[in-house]
Amino acid sequence: MSAPTAITASAPGKAPSTRRGRAAGETPLLFDAPGPRGRARIMIASLAVTALVIAAVAMGLHQLSTSGQLDYAKWRYFLGQSIVDYLGTAVLDTLRAAGIAAVLSFPIGIALGWARMARSAPLRGAVGLWIDAMRAIPMLLLVYFFLLAVPNWGLTLPSMWMLVVPIIMCTSATTAEVFRSGVRSLDAGQSEAAAALGLSAGQTMRLILAPQALRLMLPTLITQMVTILKDTSLGYVVAYGELMYATKVLTNAAGFDVYLPAYVIVALIYVVINWALSAAARRIEARSR
Description:
There is one protein chain. This protein is mainly alpha-helical. Helix content is 71%, strand content 0%. The protein has ten helices and no strands. The protein is flat, with a radius of gyration of 28 Å. The two termini are 47 Å apart.
């Protein structure tokens, strides 16, 4: 007796499919599973694309080697103790600016999001105008504003704050929209039940809606840290000693062409830090489900 075939779920009123090799209850949503010839074509195409990518990478490395960009002396320059210490200080300055911006941006953003849902129409309009403006203006333009325009008014800020304040202005606007979306996603019956119990709108927000919205937006806030960290790279504009500015200083002081190894190393540092933040966001999101 032959082996039984797997039965595939089908639409009501149609006979069940008896295709062999598909798990019971599985329904193809977009297309049927490829057959032997289809799988062979997919494999050939994948191998061809992989070969092209490998060839392109090999050609790029050959070109870099021919131009001397892969010389050991250029990479060894960044193994010196003084260079390592300088980059370590730059990493700390980057994390310091990002941490301060995050600590200030998130509470301000929550307050702005709360105010945009207020009952007062003038308050909602003013806050909404501010949020929309901060989301539309490029952050680099704000950095130049604090660098070039603000000192003309007699106000001189340290280089770190000329970087951090624009980050706070833009990030808090984004956080406000995230918070408002989190509150809007909650069941409207909770607000109605709170009103029936005699709670005011402020008490309802503070005691019922805001805690739930914060729980929902926590992974997004951590992911927002990645954006804040990358935004600190604008510190080179105001001569703040973060990673990008430190790289510029090192390449200028080297006396020979070390641009490729310098920016490759800095890129890897950013990748490691951002990967750690993204992993933390995924872990928190998994635990909050």
